[in-house]
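Subject: Interface between my chains keeps coming out wrong

I've been trying for a while to get a sensible model of this assembly. When I model each chain on its own everything looks fine, but I need the whole thing in one frame so I can look at the contacts. Pasting all components below, labels as-is. Any help appreciated, I'm running out of ideas.
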Amino acid sequence: MVGIHEFRDFQRQVRLYNRKCFWPKLDSTIVIISSIVLTYLFKRFKAIIVIGVMLMYEEHVLKVIINSKYLVAFTGAGISAESGIPTFRGKDGLWSKYDPTKLASPWGFQENPKLVWEWYKWRMSMIMNAKPNPAHYTLALLEKMHILKSIITQNIDGLHQKAGSLNVIEIHGNIWKVKCTVCNYRSRLIEPPESVPPHCPKCGAILRPDVVWFGEPLPEDEWSRAIGEASRCDVMLVIGTSGVVMPAALIPNIAKSKGAIIVEINPETTPISEIADIKVPEPAGVFFSKIKSLLRTFQ
Ligand SMILES: [Zn+2]
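Reply #2:
Try treating it as a single job with all components included. I did that and got this:
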């Protein structure tokens, strides 16, 4: 005979067994149903979800910009690519077609100054006709709004100044500046020289572009100002730079080491991506035209 206690114990065992079996079944059912619903929602509303996330993204970056106490931008060739000026690195970069040791080095210039000047003349004509893009204009606007304090640029094209930026630190020089290879003569061109190489009006020696070539040190004043700005900023926008040219690539690292928030705007992954707090994987012009529209609400 089975006593009442044994029977109740049996009933408890059955309930426990059923519960054990029931929950795993329910768990897997929930997972399957949730996956079906989420897959449907994503397929149906993918665009809306993506746009929603992107809007949140831009607003987030804008908040970081607006709330910054000392905002500095560090720019490279990528910011001017949308203005039609080719970049140097990457598969379509200039250095994949031309030899930098012949065209952008002191020994290349010494060997064939005419060839180097032909190359600079070609680039001057291209830069002369180039117009700043929304990224350049938005940075100029941020400076006018007293949010952006300075731009440290590796570019020699002068497009930041063309867009209206005033505090621009050109660590690699400027394509329109020339200096004598012998005396201390320096000048600024307004158009490409008619005959190359041009000569110094003071001593007759050959003039050279006042830009930094491979193997040359950076201009002392500009470099120390750039380090100062990188050390001082609390937010740094790193825009369109490959992050491999030394010592320029140290700039974001200096800012990071001093506690700044690094926002990288670049469709490519670079060494800077590793230290970036926010990564915007878009071309600068595309991203900043959206930031500019959002900025209107703050003006
Ligand atoms: Zn001279």
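Reply #3:
Confirming on my end. Strands lie at 71-75, 148-153, 168-170, 173-180, 186-188, 207-211, 235-239, 261-265, 278-280.
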